[in-house]
Predict the structure of IFNL3 protein.
Amino acid sequence: MLHLDLTLLLALVLGSGLGAAFPWDALKKSCSLSKYQFLVPHELKAVQKMKEQFEDIMQLTDRKCNTRLFHRKWRIAELSVPDRMVLVEAELALATAMLGLPAAPRFAKTRQRPLAFLTQAREDLRGCMATEAPSHQPSGKLRHWLQKLQMAKKTETPGCLEASAILHLFQVLNDLRCTALREQCT
């Protein structure tokens, strides 16, 4: 009986010692964007379905939008990995905010799955930014684009921002993929 108690005590002491040597919280908070290197087909189909439904709705309305947020003179491959993270986080923030706007019931249902996917991607990305580049200062190219985004949020209508975000979701997903790859991509 005493031998069993000593074994249990030894296991507890070693377990707590190993816990200090290997901080499990740090392992849980590590950055892993690898699941975004190759996007799951059903997620892509949900985004495609939502985009097509939105385009059908757009044909019924007469929106005149000036925003050209996603028309950049540079490619994401030209940015450093920390810059890519900042860019994609800003793109995802815009997309999730726009998908969270009130919508007709049918369209609201269609965009639930893409919204959940993009929200999770943004949370994962924010976790990586906190661990890998907590005090990163964006490059000049990216800083200019971020200023353009802030200006568009102030000057464009929510409808125009929504259209821009939804119509360019595949570009955002490609930017996410390039960020997850952590190497040059096209």
